[in-house]
Amino acid sequence: MSTSVKSKAVEREQLTDNHHSGEEKIITRRQTAVYVYEAPVRLWHWITVFSIITLCVTGYFIGQPLPTQPGEASDNFLMGYIRFAHFAAAYIVTIGFIGRLYWAVVGNSHSRELFFPKFFVKAWWKEVWHEVRWYLFMEKTPKKYIGHNPLAQLGMFFLFIVGMVFMIFTGFALYSEGAGQGSWQDTLFGWVIPLFGQSQDVHTWHRLGMWYLITFIMVHVYVAIREDIMSRQSLISTMISGWRMFKDDKPD
Amino acid sequence: MSQLETFYEVMRRQGITRRSFLKYCSLTAAALGLGPTFAPRIAHAMETKERTPVLWLHGLECTCCSESFIRSAHPLVKDVVLSMISLDYDDTLMASAGHQAEAILEETMQKYKGKYILAVEGNPPLNEDGMFCIVGGKPFLDQLKHAAKDAAAIIAWGSCASWGCVQAARPNPTQAVPIHKVIKDKPIIKVPGCPPIAEVMTGVITYMLTFGKVPELDRQGRPKMFYSQRIHDKCYRRPHFDAGQFVEQWDDEGARKGYCLYKVGCKGPTTYNACSTVRWNEGTSFPIQAGHGCIGCSEDGFWDKGSFYDRLTDINQFGIESNADEIGTTVAGGVGAAIAAHAAVSAIKRAQHKGE
Lengths: 252, 356
Fold this sequence. Notes:
In chain A, helix 2 (39-63) packs antiparallel against helix 3, helix 3 (78-106) crosses helix 5 and helix 4 crosses helix 5 (150-179). By secondary structure, chain A is mainly α. Chain A has helices at residues 2-20, 39-63, 78-106, 122-135, 150-179, 184-189, 192-196, 199-230, 238-241, and strands at residues 34-35, 243-244. Chain B folds into 2 domains: 7-226, NADH:ubiquinone oxidoreductase-like, 20kDa subunit (Rossmann fold); 231-311, Cytochrome-c3 hydrogenase, C-terminal domain (Cytochrome-c3 Hydrogenase, Chain A, domain 2, Irregular).
């Protein structure tokens, strides 16, 4: 991975040199594939996908339960299984999220993109604006990016990271009610309930959070497919293989 | 009212035998969730401690807390009021009235400075300088602050004193506030409920008198012994919840079979109280047992959490009455439509530039 980044850096230098010498011709170059998403990141991504699907479906049916089951209470445990699946998926997604935070520390530079958008870099905001224009069909060609483009970083941070943290905190606060006072869930997250008012308020906010994440997923999936088709680099296969392919050899 | 008289002496004077006294101590220990070893400790405390006076103030309230209190079965309120505590001032229960009553309040406050327990039923309105609640010719707010100054501890009876309850519900014209918004320098024990369960009320007082300290409180100031679990956690209909068997309509088969009231808005899963264990009226029943969902009366702002019969709370801030799912589907639908439109334009643009 480090070699590919280095090769890119060299290419960049050549491009600027050519630019300074005032050459007008379009410089072509060969861009090799770049290894962007390391295995733990990809694994985390897909675990999170399946966990969140489970959480949304089960969560929806916790708030609006399925029709009444026939027979004796002792013959059924539907709500119990739904809640078990919800809690199990919640633990998986939370442990995964903590693991992902750890990987942001030890992983490659792209593993940090989601957590630290460059809010204080003016050039970064310029590129956000460029991406916005690209999405409004005001730019003919998008830029090339090895990792996330700045607009994507912004979206991932506010829709996904903030949404996930919110759901983990409110979710574990609600879970602590069942786990009981004095449990570690209560010690760590119990304070969230009076912060929102009372338990019913936290339930309402947690459900709004679900719809927030569903909205994120819709945008995320659409944009990933669209970028895969219309941008100048691979998107979907990258999250499977880890390698970013570029479709043309033109400059950024 | 002798200053040296102990609880035990008062009880004996009232003709209670030692045997009955010891039984009572065991019963109280059990009611408080304490082990058998605590019964002798309670007995010892009652034999040696002098009675602690309780001043009971009434602010903006409906007296449902008092009504509940006098129906206590274990320990009998007769024992509590007449023997254990010296309820020196309670303008609803006391014999004297007017200036005489107010004089007793002052006398007790001076005599037992820093020792008495202040029990507050109701809450003070702050609007118009507190003129919406006048006691003895003065705003209740003044009386509350005055009586709280030298109290050892304060008990907030009911949801009014604890959270604000009905008079603090939107739009709260009198600006009624729970007492912890006014008194900040004293330990406040919240005993919420509209009203609280009688045995919970007497249990809290008994604990404080016996052990001379505030019971262990949760994060929001409620005694853990009665408010650490939700109605739902100990509900006898819980197996129907786990099985997924619900009352869908008030007149359906599920209602007749006593299924879970979750879908018709029971607030048991979000309400901390002892109703499903202690129950009401000497353990006779409680709302869910009577076939109606819990309305969450011991929770903060329960009047403002939408209908008692909705599972998902209406969110009025959005201008229209809609719950989280209605808002969510609207937003998701809007985003979906936007995505479809964007995708269509993208496809057209791509077709236009094909081959470039």
